[in-house]
Amino acid sequence: MGFLSSLLENITQSLAGHGKANLGDVQNLGKDMLQNAANEASDRLEQGVKNTTVNLENAYKRLAPINRDSYTAFQRNPKQYLEKEGVLWFVRKDLEAARYYCTGGKEGYGNEERLSGFGAAPFPKLKKDIEETEVRVKEMEKAKGYEFVSCIGNTIIFREITTGRELTPEESSQI
Q1: Are the C-beta atoms of 77 and 143 separated by less than 8 Å?
Q2: Helix (H) or strand (E) holding 43
């Protein structure tokens, strides 16, 4: 309705300005307005694609170190890897940050400033890669005796598996 209102307003102004307008003037005005609207829509679509691409790249930048480095180190020597303070918190943070980019900020670790535009990166392959990575992360967490509870904003919470006790954010950051 906004486009039609704008078109009518421009035609009315054109007619009022000239006292009268011929059909060719009205057609040219309509063509110009349609072209401008098409250009604006194309620019918005292009920006949306760029934003989605950036979010997709950022998600994979978070998943890659988990799969390439963290999980490999864990497999090589689980005990030594899990002795490091905060290691699981950082692994979970990266996984949840990837989820944040995938969902456009609806889930996961992050804040709006980290998203490029408003677009999520809801690609089926990314969702599958996040799920596969989460299986590895849960394996590492379980090996240390913890399970992930929640991530709200920039706060990640874990629970002790044996007691069921939920850790504070500070305690969670140490595992």
Answers
A1: no
A2: helix 23-65
Q: Locate the DSSP E strands across 8-154.
A: 146-152
Among candidate residues 40, 67, 34, 36, the one with its CA nearest the CA of residue 134: 67
Q: Cα separation of 101 and 123, whole Å? A: 11
Strand partners, 166: 159
Q: What is the pLDDT along the chain (175 residues), one digit of tens a residue?
A: 566 566 656 666 665 555 555 666 656 666 666 555 544 544 444 444 455 677 788 899 999 999 999 999 999 999 999 999 999 999 999 999 999 888 877 888 876 665 555 555 567 888 899 999 999 999 999 999 999 999 988 899 999 999 999 999 999 999 9
Q: Distance between CA atoms of 156 and 174, rounded to whole angstroms?
A: 11
Tokens of 28: 């040219």
Cβ atoms < 10 Å from Cβ of 148: 18
Distance CA 106, CA 21 (A): 52
Domain ranges of the chain: 2-42, 59-172
Q: Which amino acid is at 37?
A: A
